[in-house]
C-alpha cells in the first residue's frame, strides 16, 4: 500500500500508469475512500414502442421500480440505471452471464449489449465525496440537489461518465476502461486536501 502524503501526491507516478492503492494527501482519517468494483455490465435499448414493456419486465425480474427520469434502482446485487428514454444500464456483482439473463428476460423487445470489458465502476464514499466530485463535475452534486438514487450521464474532469448516488455518503461512477488511470489521477488530486484512501486498485484488486 502506498503512502503519499507529500505536497504532490502524484509525484513519481507516470501519467499513463494506474496509481497504486494506498493513502494520498493529508494524513489522518480520510475524507474520501475510493475503490474499484468490477460488476458485470450490460446496456439495454428498448426497441421502438417497447419501452414501457421493457421497464415492466426489468421491474419484475429484479424487484426494482424504475422511475421516468435518470435514476438508479438498486436491489441486492443488481443496479438498473435509466440513462435516457428506453435506455438502461444494468450492473450485477454476481451474474457472470448477465447478457444471457437479460436476453431471456427481454426477448426481442430490446437490444442487449455486453459492456463489462469496456467499463470500470468506481465506488466513492465519505463525508467529502460530493465536494471532491464537484471539482470536476458539470452538474450540481450538492446532496440537497442530487438525492439518493439520482443518476446522470455527464462529464467529470473532461471524462464522460455515468454517475449515481447509491447511498447517503456513497457514490458510484462508471467510466470507460481506457480512462481508468486518468480518472484515478483526478480522484487523487481532487481528494488530497481531504485525505484519500484508495483501495482495491489495479492488478491488486483484480485477482
UniProtKB/TrEMBL annotation:
<protein>
    <submittedName>
        <fullName>Sarcosine oxidase gamma subunit</fullName>
    </submittedName>
</protein>
<dbReference type="InterPro" id="IPR027266">
    <property type="entry name" value="TrmE/GcvT-like"/>
</dbReference>
<dbReference type="Pfam" id="PF04268">
    <property type="entry name" value="SoxG"/>
</dbReference>
<dbReference type="InterPro" id="IPR007375">
    <property type="entry name" value="SoxG"/>
</dbReference>
Amino acid at each position: 500500500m502506498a503512502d503519499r502524503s507529500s505536497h504532490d501526491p502524484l509525484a513519481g507516478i507516470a501519467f499513463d500508469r494506474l496509481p497504486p492503492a494506498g493513502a494520498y494527501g493529508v494524513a489522518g482519517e480520510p475524507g474520501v475512500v475510493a475503490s474499484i468494483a468490477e460488476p458485470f455490465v450490460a446496456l439495454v435499448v428498448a426497441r421502438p414502442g417497447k419501452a414501457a414493456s421493457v421497464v415492466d419486465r426489468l421491474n419484475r425480474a429484479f424487484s426494482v421500480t424504475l422511475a421516468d427520469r435518470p435514476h438508479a434502482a438498486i436491489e441486492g446485487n443488481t443496479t438498473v440505471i435509466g440513462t435516457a428514454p428506453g435506455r438502461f444500464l444494468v450492473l450485477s456483482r454476481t451474474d457472470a452471464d448477465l447478457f444471457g439473463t437479460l436476453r431471456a428476460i427481454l426477448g426481442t423487445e430490446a437490444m442487449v449489449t455486453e459492456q463489462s470489458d469496456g467499463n470500470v465502476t468506481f465506488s466513492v464514499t465519505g463525508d467529502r465525496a460530493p465536494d471532491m466530485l464537484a471539482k470536476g463535475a458539470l452538474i450540481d452534486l450538492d446532496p440537497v440537489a442530487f438525492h439518493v438514487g439520482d443518476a446522470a450521464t455527464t462529464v467529470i474532469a473532461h471524462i464522460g461518465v455515468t454517475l449515481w448516488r447509491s447511498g447517503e455518503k456513497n457514490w458510484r461512477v462508471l467510466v470507460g476502461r481506457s480512462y481508468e488511470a486518468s480518472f484515478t489521477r483526478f480522484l487523487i488530486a481532487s481528494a488530497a486536501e481531504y485525505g484519500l484512501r484508495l483501495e482495491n486498485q489495479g492488478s491488486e484488486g483484480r485477482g
